[in-house]
């Protein structure tokens, strides 16, 4: 590392292996992003941190790469009629405020506990959010699969849609009519989370599905619009703090731009509940990866005393688990696309006969 830099902005040295790993992480992150619309951040940020990148630098560099990738993904899925631009812009308005608040939280943590405290905060937040949201989404996907793949509007969304609290807004693509006031907290929470741990989609996508009543397909596509707005604003703020490592940004962006288009195409071949299956599965595996890294940060803060050998083993286990999550995510998405496309081709041949 560059010893002359303050602790909070130390950048890692990159070798060939690290560059290749980051490119693959970027590709799969883009694949996941195009498919589920969460920005792929829950793959990218832990992926960078597994190489030793500081939490704030990983978040900032991730956010910097996010807005051009999100723009590509949003445009691609807009052409498929999946993006509700109005809903995306409404939620992005409050998400922007959330981004500014989230960055302030990170600044406060850095000032009081240093980089180890920030890394611990990012990792613990990942574990908690991934388990809670990922578990719920995966359970819902399993129920949907058992019911034959038919998505139903969640009960909470139906109740909120019946509440007349002006101004009421109608979102055509999502086919949802709901009070603007119910969209604002989701947008704010999305921005807050995106700025602090770069995973706003964990709130945005489930929020649009379970609170507003949008389908998984529309929610995942519309999240890309929100990610673009948040990413652009957040990048400027993080860059002014010297936290963006442009090398990491460009490497993961190169891989992401390839993956996001493939992922977006994949949504046209699979049933909507498969988006939830992919999202929930990867979330839970990545939660394990980040959980294994927590003891390292606790030791750096002097909160626990563990042998260096054990810390090293946990670090390797965290990295391996991260790789497994990447592989499983890619296999599920590409496999689902292949099966759906093959089935469609077979049906087309049958119809011609």
Describe what you observe in this structure:
This protein has helices at 16-36, 41-49, 55-79, 85-146, 155-161, 180-197, 201-212, 216-240, 246-266, 272-300, 308-352; strands spanning 168-171, 176-179. The chain has 353 residues and is mostly helical. The chain has one domain. A hairpin with a 4-residue loop joins strand 1 (168-171) and strand 2 (176-179). Helix 1 crosses helix 8, helix 4 (85-146) crosses helix 8 and helix 5 (155-161) packs across helix 7 (201-212). The chain is globular. 51% of the residues are buried. The model is unreliable at 1-8 (pLDDT under 50).
Number of domains: 1
Task: Report mean pLDDT, rounded to a whole number.
Answer: 83
Report the major sheet.
2 strands, antiparallel
Shape verdict: globular
Q: Name the strands of the widest sheet in spatial order.
A: 1-2
H/I helix tally: 11
Q: β content, as a range?
A: under 5%
Show unreliable segments: 1-8
Q: What string, H for helix and E for strand, traces the elements in order? A: HHHHHEEHHHHHH
Note the gap between the termini. 65 Å
β-strand number: 2
Look at the helices and sheets and give the structural class. mainly alpha
Helix content: over 70%
Radius of gyration: 20 Å
What would a concise description of this structure say?
With 353 residues, this protein is mostly helical. It has helices spanning 16-36, 41-49, 55-79, 85-146, 155-161, 180-197, 201-212, 216-240, 246-266, 272-300, 308-352, and strands at residues 168-171, 176-179. The protein contains eleven helices and two strands, in the order H-H-H-H-H-E-E-H-H-H-H-H-H.
